[in-house]
Amino acid sequence: MDSDSKTEAIKRAKVLMVGAGGIGCELLKTLALSGFQDIHIIDMDTIEVSNLNRQFLFRQSHVGQSKAKVARDVVSRFMPQICITPYHANVKDPEFNVDFFKKFNVILNGLDNLDARRHVNRLCLAAEVPLVESGTTGFLGQVTVHIKGRTECYECQPKPTPKTYPVCTITSTPSKFVHCIVWAKDLLFAKLFGDRNQENDLFVHTGDGSDSAKPTDDIFERGLDEVPVHYGRKIYDHVFGYNIEVALANEETWKNRRRPRPIFLGDVLPEKLILQNGNHEKNCLTEDLSLSAMSSLGLNNPQEIWSLAENSRLFLEALRLFIERRGKVTIPFTFLMTYCLEHPCQKMLLMPVEPFEANKSCYVCSETPLLLEVNTQTSTLRDFVDKIVKNKLGMSFPLIMQGAILIFEGGDDLEEDVAANYALNLDKVLTALPAPVTSGSMLTVEDLQQELLCHINIKHREEFDEEKEPDRMVLLGWTTPEKESQGVSNGENTTAAIPAAPEAINKSEEVEVAAEISRTKRKLSEMSETTEVQEIFQILPDTDANNSMDPQEVEDNDYDNDLIVLDENPEASKKRRLQ
Ligand SMILES: Nc1ncnc2c1ncn2[C@@H]1O[C@H](COP(=O)(O)OP(=O)(O)OP(=O)(O)O)[C@@H](O)[C@H]1O
Ligand SMILES: [Zn+2]
Asked: Of the candidates 326, 341, 356, which is a domain's last residue?
């Protein structure tokens, strides 16, 4: 296809962008400047002040307005000839069904959560429209292209879910160091310095030993003139002393566990030391902001194992420093996320990545059945619907069948008596359902909106590890194919779409490709550096560069002017198609 017809194809293409946030604003600008004329945008959010630092289409005066609509208005001002259609809506709304998706040549995601990404992936598969998925990990951006039957789908690789711990374990019966760290960071720190309106599961009992009539939350409220050391002592005695005494009163809990020992500050440190803890001569607000509790106490080696007395002094001192630095403004403190990249990006702005072939056992793009280990005699249908069908499989309106018998249907538009019947089923254990689900049963779970159908084989199991398998159900059969290495994900904000190393290419005479994470080096000529699907993305910013958004036409591309990234030695660039 010559470059004129490619430009024509771009002009004719109808594209859908999902998300008009950080990535979406950039994307819309780039699409508009690249010559796309018919762009649709879905975003469910309104603009917030905190978006203004990076979502550059938005201004202060737009705060509170629909992102999709403002993005359209702003871009239309400098590109009035383009037709931009905004939808202030959730992409999961039923109006955005498979027929809606089929109208587009390509879908581009600029989302910030796994749930919506999975939903769009499924609709793209059902509608057979290419999906360009993008996201961030730390300071790096990633883009992958997913085309049904030619590349892996977004869900071929299981996405790492952030590790969580049951609240009761970390508050009452911690057994690992990590439990204590999560308790301190997510519960105690949040209670002391976080947003007061945010729910917090910190295990607090009524009564603090001084005034039991007061509500417990008062313990964490610092009096207007309360000196930090007094406040610190109150918190210390409450969480390490009083709460432990209360917990010990429940004998049942400690039958098979080591009993904890309550600690009160007065038993650990002499009164004089409590009052003269740390370097009080320095006013941290005006002086040394970097002063840490450790250096204030003259503890210089963090590798040393501190005594209980030293730890207690550190607690008091760190609390005092936090309080003084915060001053009178009680804005919530949160932990800052810092990403540490093992290998920098080799001075490359764009890093080409080969799309991967589909995972043959992916339940989303192949029909591979899954296996569920569950105690069929104690788990209810509700457990199955909430924990597996909605949470794990990401279905919104599931239909569950055993053989030809429908046992559950989700949705807002059900007849009252039908809904009541399903509600009755929800609280029944699996073996007590009208069509009993036992070991060996096969359930069919379908989401009509996503046009996704999965078969789940059931295996009865009695015992579960409470920590590793808190759902008391284990979904198996969704195996990861052999790959070089797993990617690094930061959870919700990343596409987590690049399972193996992004490959950076050096601009050396003998062009070399370094697989970033595995560090295996290969010659460019050996690895056949790019594929046509990547080109789609790579040439977007340049209208003269050639491409078509039609997957059919992609097959017929000529391959002479791709590979944007290298290119001191274009001759070295041999092309390889995905099989
Ligand atoms: N289900 C969904 N339907 C439509 N839009 C969605 C959906 N889920 C997320 N989005 C949109 O995706 C965009 C993601 O943008 P971004 O990652 O910059 O996050 P943000 O919410 O704008 O910023 P921040 O997270 O810093 O508040 C948001 O504008 C959000 O409204
Ligand atoms: Zn897949």
From this structure: 326
Is 199 part of a structural domain of the chain?
yes
Inside any domain, residue 20? no
Name the residue with higher pLDDT: 243 or 169. Answer: 243
* One domain, residues 240 and 317: yes
Q: Identify whether residues 199 and 311 lie together within a single domain.
A: yes
Residues 212 and 299 grouped into a single domain? yes
Q: Which atom of ligand 1 is nearest to the CA of 116?
A: 1
Residue list, annotated binding site: 19-24, 43, 51-54, 67, 112-117, 153, 156
Number of Cβ within 10 Å of residue 6's Cβ equals 21
Residue 365 appears among annotated catalytic residues: no
Mutate to test the pocket of ligand 1, among 27, 44, 55 (most ligand atoms within 8 A of CB): 44
Catalytic residue, candidates 25, 124, 168, 284? 168
Domain end, chosen from 461, 476, 491, is at 476
Q: Is residue 22 situated within a structural domain?
A: no
Each residue's pLDDT tens digit, 526-542? 323 222 222 222 222 22
411 with 309, same domain? Answer: no
Round to whole Å and give the CA distance between 189 and 220: 11
| Ligand having the closest approach to the CA of 115 | 1
pLDDT band at residue 551, thresholds of 50, 70 and 90? very low
Confidence check on the interface: ipTM exceeds 0.95, yes or no? yes
Q: What is the structure's pLDDT at 86?
A: 98
Q: Are residues 419 and 320 in the same domain?
A: no
Contacts for 430 with CB less than 8 Å, ≥ 6 apart: 374, 376, 377, 379, 380, 381, 384, 436, 437, 438, 458
Question: From the CA of 89, which ligand is nearest?
Answer: 1
**Residue 516 near residue 343 (C-beta atoms within 8 A):** yes
Residue 114, pLDDT > 70, answer yes
Cβ neighbours of residue 389 closer than 8 Å, sequence gap 6 or more? 395, 398, 400, 445
Give the global pTM.
Answer: 0.59
Q: Which residues surround ligand 2, an ion (CB under 5 A)?
A: 153, 155-156, 362, 364-365
User: By residue range, what is the domain housing residue 221?
Assistant: 195-326
Are 203 and 289 within one domain? yes
- How many C-beta atoms surround the C-beta of residue 182 within 10 A? 19
Does residue 48 sit within a domain?
no
What total number of domains does the chain contain?
2
